[in-house]
Structures are given as structure tokens and as C-alpha cells.
């Protein structure tokens, strides 16, 4: 089985399928081809969300704003899976998730950086074909054939593919971490005890849900929050509020998201990818946090 | 084979695919993942349109505005097929179609109601897992695993699955029925003889075709109608009118639909799901129905 | 394997899948179902782009503005592939590509015309079922069953299918050819030497890239051009210009396309399918073409 992910829209991915079927009779499974265009961080987010659900297979994921530049093609081997795509960081969050190292996914501000393969927790290979592709469509001309070859050769013997060799480094990608806000009470901040957290929007999904980097655990036991000055309920399900109402909920990815029932959260909260989100929780029963009261009613 | 239908957009359904492939090597076939969001009636309409074309397989269809509430998960067994999804009525129209009981699909106004399983014409099972899922993504966490288990266990032995037992009742869904209009001449109305029919729009498809609940037989032998006061031709095919022109035709689902060639019928006719549609046919050769003349030229 | 292409959107193609799976357990591969609606030329372009990437299989492609009219259903056999669809020209460009006759694809202005099967370079069969389908959904009722039957019968023995017989003619489709412009210096125009070329937009893809009929070879060795009076760089990759900038590049289909990095080329260049595109190259080092200077700065 080979899964395909891209930002190519339609009908470009079909050309990749044809190329693969010329080389193998593996099953092809579409993950998505409408991932946010040329958005490496969104790709990393969604691939981390989806790929760990699969049994160990080959995943070909091409979100590649650097196509035509010097960036390498890589294959990552982790937990029986193989990830094939450009060396731009997009494959790293799913690789960490597959390596069960999510807890180590701690922030460098969302920027890509160079990382050493020896500490990665997974194996990275670089692919340098003898005759470099000149095309603008590396999905069809580089990555699809490489994914087919990884499938045919076997994930455990990637090294045997011509042009594949262990990489010394790779472009890393770590999502930014939310930070405690609002003064001394947050000095001993943990996700469970924070009274105020500043995070940012990682991605907006197709329905306008603005998904943040704030873990859902931060809202445990809370039923209301002030998000960028707007007071909204924290609910388990959309059905808990009226149509058109804003809400904060924990999405299936485990993060807080800013949503509207039967509407678009990104518009109602005026939030897009990368925007700062300040989430302040009202005072708890023990009287702490009174100072937040006015924010709460903002 | 397992078919997948949802209103999840992208890339959420891919997580369901991964979950299924971890449990079975069944073929997965996408029906659609852009069904009208949280619209149980539209789901029922489209599933009834598509699923009976398939050979007997497992169908997992998740349009689930009640996710997170007390609604049950159900499996319907009918004609060798199994339908897996939430107990909200969306699975009932395709179940009736598969039971070859379409003729019994007579109106209660489109509302959902409670029905007794003994009269259903198909078997309904409820699924109550030991440890209830807390997630907001039951497509991935409840229905995908259940569909995989139904496939592995076999449709004829659904009862053997842990947590599955015969249901006593289920949420029914029947589409509204069109009604004769326009006075005494419609007293002996049948689909074939009606001079005026009031129905409603069931769904609007992706091209803007406003599909009504009026059966195509109502327009047999007619070449023109007045739809909500607008006189339009009744044609067999779009090519029979000029680009941009309004028309009434019988869609592949068997119902009259309000369309525009190379345009959107919903906009031209100002119609959306649930809107009332009055269709009046001009007088026939025997001179009846002169009173409709002015409507005809409205 | 059967590939499916259409302009049906969703969920109509799923009905075709069901129909096919009732008749064969062939693998079904979606090429695209959002091809430009009822646009035979765009269908020909995209099918020519995608289908030759596949190994020899059955391709069912239904872009069919003439559904319900007298147009025939055809099957084309070429290079081990079978193309199933309406006789409107849409299958001809991929058939020529599969016949390795692309070089013969020379222009009659993009119009469809009647062609003789004896010169085609591929075999054309017409399909006339005993009981003609009356439906508006020939994708489900004619082409899907026919594709399944071609698959089951075998591409080499299409003639054995009831209702299939060799065609004497078929509706041809050839894309228009670009022409040299700008006076005597273009008298001995070839794609390599032209200083000015007038072509047209064949299709606009989902990202707004306006793809022309001017072959990329026309721009070899050039780094700038004046497109309809607008001076833009010719680049290998989007990354060579700033976000929001216009550019001319050679797409993966081999033609020049008018694009914007992180934007829509069709809007920035004000171009749609069928629009004329004049591309003028600045003078080269040998001093020729000074007269183009003002156009260049237009």
C-alpha cells in the first residue's frame, strides 16, 4: 500500500497514480490532495494527524514549495513505515509521531532548522538520482517513482535503492509551544494549571475551525474561556451551543480549536494560520484569578 | 469492500481509512465526503441514490450532527448489505431502497420519528461499546472500527460482535410527499394526471440543480410547466435549451429538478433545500385547465 | 483496472463505481471528477496529460455535453489501452498520445470535425445497445456498464461485445496551433527561433494557471517575455520570483503557462480558456528584434 498526500488539487495526482501503477500493483490510498498550498507546517500537522492511523506502509507526501531548488528528496524509515517526500520538514512531525516521540516535540517557534540524524529517533535517507529531474512536477517524476521503488524493494531494505544513502542531517520542523501568560500566577504553569495561555493557530481546516497549538488538557475542568478578549463556552460537542454561536472545543487532534456551530471559526474569531491566540480562563472556585473577571466579560 | 460516506471534507476521512486498514484488508471505496454538512435528510437522499447501485457490501456513512449526544450507533442489515452509522435517520432511506420497499416510502413531512423495528422491512442493530468513546470524531473512533469489524465478522453474523444487539426501535426518516393543488380538478390526483403539484426541494446538488420530491412521472407527456410562477420548458436533456436558460427535467434519481443549462438552478429559481415548489401544467388538448393560462405566462 | 474521469462532481461518480463493482472486481482508480464542466477540449487536454502515465488499462471518461442527443458511445483501442466514452472528440487527444502520434496533432483551430477511422492510428468502435438508454445519466447507465464489459471481455477482444462494431468515422478534436507573429522575421518561424508567437489559452487549472498551446521549446534560452503587453520573467520554478509576481514557465505538460506565485495567473493576466495570448520575446544578443523593445516595456 502507498498513501498519497499533496497540495496538487486535481487532476495532477492522477498522473502520480499512473506512474506508480506502471511500477507496482500496490494499493494506492488518497489521503488528501487539497492540503493548504505550499504550507509545510500545515502539511506536517495534517500528516501527523492522519498517517499514524495507518498500518506500516509507504507514504508519499508532496507539499513542496522548494520544487526546482536544491532541496533534497528524502525517505524516512520509522516504525515499519516509510515516508517519501521533499526534505523541507513536512515529513518530520508524522515521523516523530510514528516514533512515539510526540512528547519530545518541543518548540523552536515553528521554524524549520537543520537537525542531526543521530538524535532523530528515526532513520533519514537522502535520494540523489543519477540524472536529476528537470521537471517542475517532481511529484510525478521523482517522488511517485521513488515511492513505488521503496514499496517494491521493501521498507526494511531501502538502502539497496540506487541513489539512496543515509542522510547526515535533515530539515527539522517543530511546532511552536504555547506559553503561560498573565503574571506571577503562571510561574509554575503546566498545561493543567495555567490560568492564561498564549498560543497560535497552526491550521484552519476546511470548515473554518481554527486549530491552535494549545493542548486540550489546558482546558480540563473549565467551561468557559476568554479568547482574544471574546468570552466563549468550552464544550464537548457543537450540539452544546446554538447554531451560529462561537465555542472552544478540543478537536480530534487533541488541541483547542476556535469554532462556530454551523459557521466558520476563522472568520468569527478573526484568526488565520500563525495568528496569536490568548486564552484566559475565569477564576476558579478558590477565588484565584479575580483579576480576569473583566477580561472574561470583555 | 467497505464504502465510506461523510460530510467530513478533507483530510479527516483519511484517518478513517487508516483505522480500517489496521483491522482489515477490505477494499475501501469513497462514495463522497462533501455531502451537505450535518444535513441528515440530504444524506438520506444521496445514500438512497448511490448505495443500491453497489453489490452487497458494508457501507459506513457518517453524517452526524448529534455526535457527542446520546444518539446510538446502529448497523442495518438489508438485502445482504450492512449500513453502519449514527441512529439519526440518514441510513433509513437507503435501507428502504435496498429492501425494495421504496413504494412504502410515504410521507411524514420529512421529519425524523421513532419507528418500530418489527415493521421496518430490514434488521436494525444497536451498537453499545463497553467503553464509550469520548472523542468528537466518532467517524474514526466508533464507526470506522465498527465497519471493519462488521466486514471481518461477516454481514450474516453481525450479532456476534461484542456490544451489538437487536434494536427495538430506530429513528425513522421519510421524505415529504408532494400534494395536488389547484382545486377540484385535482381531487382524483395521481402522479400521471395532476395538473398542479406542490412539492419541495429535497437537495441542491453541486451544480446548483434543485432536486424536488415530485416524481418525474408527474410530468409525463408534458413539455412545459409553470414553476413558482415562472414558465419553463420540460426537456429530456440540457442540450434542448440555450445556455443560460431555465428548464425542468427528470434527473437520474427519478425526480423533477429545476435547472439552468450551464448555470445554477437554485439561484435562477431562488430555491434551496426545504423550499416549497408549485408546479402547474398548462391545459391539455381537451381544453381543460384554461384557468392556468395566466399562470403559464406569469 | 478501470480509471474514471468525469465532470460530474459529487456524489454521482459513486453510482458509476457501484455499477462497475456489480459487474467486475476490477480496481477502480479516480482520475478526476471535477474536470471543467461540459468542456470537451479541456477534457481532451487533461486526459492526454494523465492517461498516458498509466499502464494499459480501461479508461472510462465521461464529459458529455451531448448526453441525450444522437451522439454515439465509442470505445477506442490503442496501445493496449481502451478508452470508453462519448463520441465528441474528448477521447481523441489521449488516443493520439497513446498511439505516440503526438507530432501529428496539428491544428484545425480546436474545433471538432469528422475524421476517417482508416487514418486514425488507433481503432475506433461504436457501441449501439439493443435497448437505448433513456436516462440523463449515461455515465451510470451506458458508459460504466460498457467499461466493465470491456474489462471483463478483454481489451483485445472488444469486438465480441454485443452492440460493439468498428466505426467508420469519429468526431475528431485537434488543439489549435500557435502562429508566428510580428512580420518578416517570423517567415521562417520554428518553435525554437520565433521572436513572437500568438497562441491561446487551452485550459485554466485549479490554481488559476493559464495553460497555453505554445510549446515550452518556444521559450528555450529566453529569460523574459512580453505577454499581451505585460513584461514578465520566464522562470524554471515559482520560487524564482517573489510571492504575488507574474511569471511565464513551462508546465509539466510541456506548454507555456501564465502564472502568479501564490496567486491566480488567470486573473492577473486576465485570461480564460480560448483567449488569445501574444508572447513576444525581447531582442537577443545579436541585435535582432530591436523593434520589440517598446512592446517589452509596454
From TrEMBL, chains A, B, C:
The keyword Transcription does not apply. GO terms for molecular function: adenosyl-fluoride synthase activity. Residues 2-154 form the S-adenosyl-l-methionine hydroxide adenosyltransferase N-terminal domain. It comes from the Archaea. Pfam families: SAM_HAT_C, SAM_HAT_N. The keyword Ion transport does not apply. Keywords: S-adenosyl-L-methionine, Transferase. InterPro entries: SAM_HAT_C, SAM_HAT_N, SAM_OH_AdoTrfase, SAM_OH_AdoTrfase_C_sf, SAM_OH_AdoTrfase_N_sf. Its EC number is 2.5.1.63. PANTHER family: CHLORINASE MJ1651 (PTHR35092:SF1). Belongs to the SAM hydrolase / SAM-dependent halogenase family. This is S-adenosyl-l-methionine hydroxide adenosyltransferase.
